[in-house]
Amino acid sequence: MKKLLHIIATPRGDRSRTLQVSRAFLEAFRTTHPEWNVEELDLFKEKLPPLTVERVDGKYVLLSGKELPVELKGAWEEILRHIERFLAADGYLISTPMWNFGVPYVLKHYLDVIVQPRGLFRYTPNGVEGLAKGRKMVIMTSRGGDYSTAPASTMDFLEPYLKAVFNFVGITELTFVNVQPMDALGPQVRDSKISAACESAQALAWKF
Ligand SMILES: Cc1cc2nc3c(=O)[nH]c(=O)nc-3n(C[C@H](O)[C@H](O)[C@H](O)COP(=O)(O)O)c2cc1C
Q1: Less Cβ crowding at N or C end of the chain, within 10 Å?
Q2: Which residues' Cβ are closer than 6 Å to ligand 1?
Q3: What is the pLDDT of residue 4?
Q4: Are 155 and 101 in contact (CB under 8 A)?
């Protein structure tokens, strides 16, 4: 069985607009991809390890090309478990709203945990090599306003940030579905944007 890891970065459960679109994706995905398992990682329910000085020290040790010393191994266990879980997936669905023009803090925290040398990337004489290569990703985002055109688009740090991080770790087959505006123009516009996004999401699921 292949595995799709669904990473959730909204705390709003059934009331989430982002998850409404992700559910349309998953429904189509499950029908068209029976050989895939879907596993959920809900970042608002997960107790992510804080980036303490020991954990940060470990990152610098690995960056210098050395092995983790025994005294840091305990502190790094949880980080390694999260990296392993991420790399065990063959594809990803990320569901995230825009919070203050970027990602909600739990998603930033998760990325700070898993984007580690020897885990998700390594330095080579030819530059950085991403270690999560060959995996596909779909990113559902929803936003209160509409950032699809200038000048508002210059305030969208969500899409460029996620694109940069995942490209850095080798994930280049990455598609965004940005559902917007969810709050600025009222419920009618919101509902029609969600319906259109659900259709795009289903089409993406078929060809994933
Ligand atoms: C803490 C917080 C910060 C937000 N910041 C922004 C923002 O910077 N820009 C924006 O357009 N909407 C912002 N919003 C609105 C959400 O992006 C929008 O309502 C989204 O559809 C919520 O998604 P969800 O229902 O999946 O949680 C913010 C909402 C919250 C709760």
Answers
A1: N
A2: 10, 12, 16-19, 97-101, 142-145, 182-183
A3: 98
A4: yes
